[in-house]
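Work through this:
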Amino acid sequence: MTAAKQINLPFWETVKRSFLYTLLNVSLLGKMFSFGAVLLVYDTFTDFSTLSFLVGDIAETDWRIGVGKLLNLVVSVAVIVNYCRFVILKEALDFYSLAFFKRVFLYIIASVLFALSLIIPAAIISAIASIASLTWLYSVGAVAILVIAVLLSPIFIYFASITVDDKTLTLKEAFKLAKGNCNKIFWGALLIMVPCSILTILFGYVYGMVMPDTFLTKLLFSAMLIIISLLDTCLKSSFFAHIYQYFTFYKNREI
């Protein structure tokens, strides 16, 4: 019997551990939030463009939004790399070594490839539906993209392996280890994002109602939005690290 057939990821236990690890390790969470200083400074010097975009005051094509998204991506990956390394290896934070920048670069490349594997099929289906005027094809396409996302979910294990420089775990091996667990991995990753997604929606509603116009209140709202975003990143990092640990435990035992 192969290792892949014997591994059965405990869904609720993994999600629970991921949540609790993040929320109970306050000191680590605080250190991760410190990365948000870069985003806060950028938002301050671009007249709080993030908040303006939140209520539709500026278009997505505005250069400030584009640069802000790129900066947010880099900061998020920096947090993921450090968080996963702490969970798995108990290593101290590292945001300046050459190895750190290499991990961030490789992680971004892997993330972009994963995103393209979903965006390209979606674009093709959308184009066909538009040209052929087949509105029902959009629904079929949405289901197809969801199925693809589920099937590709073992890549999350590979993401964690990049952060800890695990060259023994190839992408092919990650899919082999996760065989039969794709649904658990995908829905677990989705479930872990629900709390912060709800908080973001509520935050946007409150901000739209208040519409602060002073520098201090805008700074406060911007900081709160960044904290919610980084908390979401830490929760996902915790989940990635925990599923990596679970599957590689069995891999190392050579079941």
